[in-house]
């Protein structure tokens, strides 16, 4: 066996393996398994390269913990800036998929620290592309465009693979900016270039991007055709994560085409996936489709159940976005802390020199020492003050909704729970109002997201002055809001809700540059004897809100036990015909 292994040029085989990973993944995995039998006959560096490739193959198949085990093991073997950078980058990809954003930023910081030590232009270009990929996964849009453009600027005409990848991330950048026409053109250019130059996997990713761009442009038939072609390509590579993503997009596209059977087929593929963090956004999308589909079929009870699941995954996505933001800010803060520590070490060194000089120059040098000491302490005080200001700013940002300026879901619910405990401990009442803007998607679709944002801010501005200082006003979803009224009974809640409904309906939309009507549907629920937390009140108010929408919208509905009846879906209008119900 040693003699046979010695006849193999492992460096050449590993180079071929690296090329196959971008052109023929199944063949690359087969060759990888063949090489594992000769693992003990390789040098440490060759073993490290093989483990990097093995970790990459696990990422493609969605086995992220296995990928981490191999990549972390490779770190001690490669001891080379180029391949060490690859190991760190793929580790970050696996951590992101596992939603461990803190460790993802740690290894990304290690990757950034290696770039300046990379002299090879080809390796540096590949490093920029990996960073673009990681920042795309973290949702940090600006960095995606920056690093993709840097990589493209370092590419020569014969660097076809890297040009392909850079073009892909510049296309993704346009998609994340929601410039869908331009994104489609960029993806099409990328697809044509990569397909003609023999990089099928990247061309399939671009094909999916073309399909998603068409979906967002509401050109659903074109979107379906492109996504089906992308799905077939992904299946040939067994790229499971992307296969799941395409099924989610196809469910959405078929629903928009009212081809409900096809929509259900692709949605069920996604709902059958395990409850892992990497599938959160996909499941959110398909449960939204299933809720809409059942609502179309007048199956309101089932639609409500799917809507609850959609909201559950929406909350997970919200929490994940918050975790990414906090991890990103923490990473930046840690980097600033390290810089401050270096500055402090330098200051201590200066102080030591000054102290030695004092012994020789007595009075004059003593004054210099005091000046340096005071200056250093003053500078440290400024840094600490700035750090505290930044910390308070980030805490405010984490609690407030960036668009409307009111509390976000997490902060609103936390404050509401505290007020609920105080009110119930003193024997007071408590009331929850949930409201949702009617046909809000039509405003976005007809006049653009800018007008939709204007409408959300205008609704909040119209109601803020009407909300008492002790009440809680929060945005809990896209166009859904909550008003929590401590020490107020259900009658007061109905009165407040009706006043809010009227104020929203009276909004003059001409200042937005368009003429349209804004209305909202309200659900109201008061405190019951067996309520121990806000959750039951939110649930009942949500059911009342759903009833208000089913009853024609632009209405206020108070929760009653009739809403729990099985006949609600077919006989709802008769039961809530009276405004007092």
From TrEMBL:
PROSITE patterns associated with the record: GGDEF
InterPro entries, per the entry: Diguanylate_Cyclase (IPR050469), GGDEF_dom (IPR000160), Nucleotide_cyclase (IPR029787), Rev_trsase/Diguanyl_cyclase (IPR043128), TPR-like_helical_dom_sf (IPR011990), TPR_rpt (IPR019734)
Record-listed E.C. numbers: 2.7.7.65
Coiled coil: 290-355
Keyword terms: Coiled coil, Membrane, Nucleotidyltransferase, Transferase, Transmembrane, Transmembrane helix
Keyword Glycoprotein included in the entry's annotation: no
Catalytic activity: 2 GTP = 3',3'-c-di-GMP + 2 diphosphate
Protein name: diguanylate cyclase
UniProt KW Nucleotidyltransferase keyword: yes
TM region(s), chain numbering: 366-387
One Gene Ontology term of the molecular function aspect: diguanylate cyclase activity
Biological source species: Shewanella vaxholmensis
UniProt domain GGDEF: residue ranges: 428-561
SMART domains attached to this UniProt entry: GGDEF, TPR
Gene3D superfamilies xrefs: 3.30.70.270, Tetratricopeptide repeat domain
UniProt-listed Pfam families: GGDEF (PF00990)
């Amino acid at each position: 066996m040693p003699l046979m292994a010695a006849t193999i040029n492992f460096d050449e085989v590993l180079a071929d393996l690296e090329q196959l990973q971008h052109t023929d993944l199944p063949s690359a995995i087969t060759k990888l398994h063949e090489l594992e039998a000769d693992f003990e006959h390789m040098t440490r560096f060759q073993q490290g390269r093989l483990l990097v490739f093995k970790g990459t193959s696990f990422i493609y198949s969605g086995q992220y913990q296995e990928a981490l085990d191999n990549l972390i093991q490779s770190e001690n073997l490669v001891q080379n800036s180029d391949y060490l950078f690859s190991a760190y980058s793929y580790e970050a990809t696996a951590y992101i998929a596992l939603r461990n954003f803190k460790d993802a930023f740690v290894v990304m910081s290690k990757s950034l620290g290696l770039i300046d030590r990379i002299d090879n232009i080809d390796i540096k270009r590949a490093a920029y592309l990996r960073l673009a990929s990681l920042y795309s996964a973290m949702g940090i849009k600006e960095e995606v465009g920056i690093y993709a453009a840097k990589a493209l600027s370092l590419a020569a005409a014969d660097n076809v693979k890297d040009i392909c990848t850079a073009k892909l991330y510049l296309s993704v950048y346009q998609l994340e900016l929601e410039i869908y026409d331009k994104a489609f053109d960029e993806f099409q250019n990328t697809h044509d270039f990569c397909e003609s130059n023999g990089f099928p996997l990247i061309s399939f990713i671009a094909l999916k991007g073309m399909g998603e761009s068409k979906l967002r442009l509401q050109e659903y038939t074109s979107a379906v055709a492109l996504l089906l072609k992308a799905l077939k390509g992904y299946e040939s590579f067994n790229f499971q994560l992307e296969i799941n993503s395409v099924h989610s997009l196809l469910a959405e596209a078929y629903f928009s085409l009212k081809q409900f059977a096809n929509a259900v087929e692709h949605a069920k593929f996604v709902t059958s996936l395990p409850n892992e963090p990497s599938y959160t956004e996909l499941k959110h999308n398909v449960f939204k489709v299933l809720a809409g589909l059942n609502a179309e079929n007048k199956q309101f009870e089932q639609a409500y159940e799917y809507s609850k699941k959609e909201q559950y995954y929406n909350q997970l996505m919200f929490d994940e976005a918050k975790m990414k933001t906090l991890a990103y800010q923490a990473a930046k803060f840690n980097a600033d802390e390290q810089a401050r520590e270096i500055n402090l070490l330098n200051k201590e060194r200066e102080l030591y020199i000054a102290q030695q000089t004092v012994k020789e120059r007595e009075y004059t040098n003593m004054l210099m020492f005091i000046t340096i000491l005071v200056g250093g302490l003053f500078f440290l005080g400024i840094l600490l003050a700035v750090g505290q200001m930044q910390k308070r700013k980030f805490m405010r940002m984490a609690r407030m909704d960036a668009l409307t300026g009111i509390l976000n879901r997490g902060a609103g619910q936390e404050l509401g729970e505290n007020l609920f405990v105080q009110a119930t401990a003193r024997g007071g009442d408590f009331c929850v109002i949930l409201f949702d803007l009617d046909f809000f998607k039509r405003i976005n679709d007809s006049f653009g997201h800018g007008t939709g944002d204007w409408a959300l801010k205008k609704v909040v501005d119209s109601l803020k002055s009407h909300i008492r200082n002790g009440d809680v006003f929060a945005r809990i979803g896209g166009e859904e809001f909550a008003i929590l009224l401590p020490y107020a009974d259900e009658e007061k809640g109905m009165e407040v809700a009706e006043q809010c409904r009227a104020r929203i309906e009276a909004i003059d939309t001409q200042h937005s540059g368009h003429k349209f009507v804004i209305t909202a549907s309200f659900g109201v629920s008061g405190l019951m004897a067996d309520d121990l937390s806000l959750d039951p009140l939110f649930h009942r108010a949500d059911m009342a809100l759903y009833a208000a929408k089913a009853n024609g919208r632009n209405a206020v509905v108070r929760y009653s036990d009739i809403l729990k009846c099985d006949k609600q879906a077919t006989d709802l209008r008769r039961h809530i015909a009276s405004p007092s119900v």
